């Protein structure tokens, strides 16, 4: 595999000539490069956004390099010791183990996980004494940490930055020392953290790693990067029908980005698809169907992709969003008193959490009798007439 | 002992009503208070400046409270891990032990050291894991640390603050947690550090310590606080003649401060001496002689004080600083080549370190043939004529 193949699609290489040099070094020393990527065991779910980097990592694996996954169980076992962040309680060792297994089984959708090296960073960080920690801390200055915009903003706006948070980047950096990584893959927002790894290695006389970041994939909402917490994601293990349907729901302007980042087409095929979209020679709906088909094929199989396409055709496209597709719901079943909050009703009908329903409403994805509503405090009452309710892309109900 | 006796002479009590409350608590719970004070094992030499606080601590000991000395060996064993500060190499356990013994033997000049509790903070800090450290760090925020002016100034002026330095106040604070101190004695410049101890204790559900600071004693130069590094100090174990002579060298305007902080006179005796000085009813020299006598009596004995006074009278006062007092030195003995650097020469003549001699020269305390020199690079050569050399207050030599 050539340098050009490996560098293709990488958003940033720091330092810029680093990848070339590392590849030459590997050749000269006749050894594989050590590629590091990290996993947060409190968030084991992988989606198409993660897959952008993982597919690039697969290329390095295919080219004969070593892939090292760091399970960040050290901080997961500690949790947030300040107790301020209630969403970060400590995990038990069993939970960490379970989450790591979940994660690796999702990774197997992308590459042969028997070929990668898996490390748990508590193995080295958990052994460190206070004196070792002081030595680690002496390698970084306050100004370096404050290069991180979030720390700087919080400090300047008098939002507390606890000291354990301040040193987290060093912890992640020390992982690079422990495994002697040549290359670290990180999200764009992780670049500074990854560069700490580089400078820590160098302060200890090692060759510093280089850092590769991949572009961020925008979620189906078309606004922000794909993220589980924003609900705008497609998980790698989702059902083919959901993968297909969610892909069909992206706004047209995302087509070029999704062609580039989610399909496994060749560069030429990608260029053709984007050109077709931009020239208007192909209906955007047709290009999205191809993308959706390709995604299902990658993470499930071609047969699943065919079935998902057929399901979508039958369910949504052929019959349209007309009233025949609306499911009938009786007031007596959902609200015997004849009155119910829209959020509660949505949660019952879709069997989802209330916060999801609130997000749907606030995102403009809920309409009543054809009119959108953004009011999460709305209460519906039975006045004897039918109410047509649309909840998101695929929740259509007639309330009688 | 009453509250008024104990509070007398204390510079600051934080919080202001804290000492009253702690004394009432001790009475109510029928227990002694736990008084903490710390020792830096890299700097075991005690001088009259330290004695100001130690004499106050003796009052608490006499009143039945517990005195706990913390030997800060944890950081001394680590040194400055950044390697930037070459004056702070790690000490060996043997060096720490030796310095602690030196320190305690000097303390015995002030109180019965068999009655105090001695702790080595490596006993608890050395046991802490990285996870324990994270918990400790979570109890403080960056803004709290930046209340320290030195950190703030360095950060704002782009002078590096290494992260291990940033957390040192927490380390000292944790000592208060470990011994459950009620009161910590610190220098004025240690107040913020001591208050971390208080807030750490409180964040762990304990009763927070109060912090007492004592006034800083000005050194013999009359400019800055007494400090070994400035050479303006009287060590607790110095020879009676040196103690006496150095005290006689203080500028007159220091008399009230030295009466207050160095003598063991009663408040009434102190007030009289200060009034005599201010009214001009007593010659300042006579008051200084009383102070010098009292100091030697405290740290040696009355007989030593009488002898030191006699020595001073004979050596300095009666005969004056005339040439008869200059000691003759032969070129052949100190510089057979006929040429020698002023620093090297001074070090030989006074049997002191070269850095002490450099300090003397830079401090304007060295003159050649009656003319001051500030040149630490000066070389003297034998041109056949006599050279009269004054090195500090009591080093008078004629080089032939």
Structure write-up:
The structure is a homodimer of 400-residue chains. By secondary structure, chain A is an alpha/beta fold. The first copy, chain A, has helices spanning 3-7, 18-29, 48-62, 73-78, 93-107, 122-125, 130-137, 142-145, 149-156, 163-166, 168-179, 191-203, 240-248, 255-262, 267-279, 284-299, 302-318, 331-334, 342-350, 354-362, and strands at 12-14, 34-39, 66-71, 117-120, 183-186, 210-213, 327-329, 339-341, 366-368, 371-372, 379-381, 387-391, 395-399. At the A-B interface, α4, α7, α8 and α10 of A face α4, α7, α8 and α10 of B.
Multimeric status of the protein: homodimer
Alpha carbon gap, first and last residue of chain A: 63 Å
Structural class of chain A: alpha/beta
| Tally of contiguous helical segments of chain A | 20
- Average residue-wise pLDDT of chain A: 90
* Total beta strand runs of chain A: 13
Explain the layout of strands and helices.
The structure is a homodimer of 400-residue chains.
Chain A: H1 3-7, E1 12-14, H2 18-29, E2 34-39, H3 48-62, E3 66-71, H4 73-78, H5 93-107, E4 117-120, H6 122-125, H7 130-137, H8 142-145, H9 149-156, H10 163-166, H11 168-179, E5 183-186, H12 191-203, E6 210-213, H13 240-248, H14 255-262, H15 267-279, H16 284-299, H17 302-318, E7 327-329, H18 331-334, E8 339-341, H19 342-350, H20 354-362, E9 366-368, E10 371-372, E11 379-381, E12 387-391, E13 395-399
Parallel strand pairs in A: 2-3, 2-5, 3-4, 5-6, 7-13
Antiparallel strand pairs in A: 1-6, 8-11, 9-10, 9-12, 12-13
Helix pairs in contact in A: 11-12, 13-16, 13-17, 14-15, 14-16, 16-17, 19-20
């Amino acid at each position: 595999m050539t340098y050009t193949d490996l560098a293709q699609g990488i958003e940033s290489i720091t330092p810029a000539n680093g990848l070339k040099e590392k590849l030459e070094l590997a050749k000269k020393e006749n050894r594989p490069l050590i590629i590091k990527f990290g996993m947060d065991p409190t968030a084991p779910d992988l989606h198409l956004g993660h897959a952008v980097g993982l597919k690039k990592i697969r290329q390095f694996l295919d080219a004969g390099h070593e892939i090292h996954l760091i399970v960040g169980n050290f901080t997961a076992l500690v949790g947030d010791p300040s107790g301020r962040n209630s969403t970060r309680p400590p995990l038990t060792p069993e939970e960490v183990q379970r989450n790591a297994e979940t994660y690796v089984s999702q990774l197997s959708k992308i590459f042969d996980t028997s070929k990668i090296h898996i490390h748990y960073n508590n193995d080295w960080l958990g052994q460190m004494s206070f004196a070792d920690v002081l030595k680690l801390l002496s390698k970084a200055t306050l100004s370096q940490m404050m290069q991180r915009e979030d720390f700087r903003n919080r400090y300047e706006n008098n939002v507390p930055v606890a000291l354990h948070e301040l040193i987290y980047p060093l912890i992640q950096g020390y992982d690079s020392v422990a495994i002697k990584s040549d290359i670290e893959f990180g999200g764009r927002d992780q670049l500074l953290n990854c560069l700490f790894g580089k400078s820590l290695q160098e302060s200890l006389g090692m060759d510093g790693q280089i850092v590769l970041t991949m572009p961020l994939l925008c979620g189906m909402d078309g606004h922000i990067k794909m993220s589980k917490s924003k609900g705008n994601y497609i998980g790698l293990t989702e059902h083919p029908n959901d993968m297909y349907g969610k892909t069909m729901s992206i706004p047209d302007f995302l087509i070029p980005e999704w062609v580039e980042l989610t399909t496994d087409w060749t560069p030429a095929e990608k260029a053709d698809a984007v050109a077709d979209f931009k020239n208007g020679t192909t209906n955007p709906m047709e290009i999205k169907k191809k993308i959706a088909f390709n995604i299902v094929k990658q993470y499930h199989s071609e047969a699943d992709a065919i079935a998902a396409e057929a399901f979508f055709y039958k369910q949504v496209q052929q019959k349209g969003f007309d009233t025949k597709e609306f499911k009938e719901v009786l007031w007596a079943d959902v609200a015997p008193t004849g009155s119910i909050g829209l959020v509660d009703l949505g949660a019952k009908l879709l069997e989802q959490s209330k916060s999801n329903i609130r997000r749907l409403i606030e995102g403009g994805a809920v309409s009543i009798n054809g009119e959108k509503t953004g009011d999460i405090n709305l209460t519906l009452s039975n006045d004897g007439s039918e109410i047509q309710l649309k909840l998101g892309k695929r929740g259509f109900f007639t309330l009688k």
